[in-house]
Amino acid sequence: MxxxxxxxxxxxxxxxxxxxxxxxxxxxxxxxxxxxxxVEVEFDKNGILWVFLTGQxxxxxxxxxxxxxxxxxxxxxxVLKLLFTGWFEMNGEFLLLDxxxxxxxxxxxxxxxxxxxxxxxx
Length: 122
Hints:
alpha+beta
């Protein structure tokens, strides 16, 4: 399946296309642009494929499990862990409600696969 000509599809947008680098924006179905994921795919000269995912995550208590002060405490402990260890773990949600959205992500992955195969065959 050659999808290398795909420019945009349902909630998956190609934002830049350089020789060795592709940029995409994948929209969350909740329609909050803060939940969108930016994907950068780099093809290096040694045949290595690099994928960078960037998104905005929040320390929030949507269901009020911790209360106001508990949420503040979680934020403080997260900052302290980052300060003293240099890393932290977080998770976030990304909503896929429509089959077209899933198909668009599959097409985006096929485009990366096709581009990588063409580069390796040069």
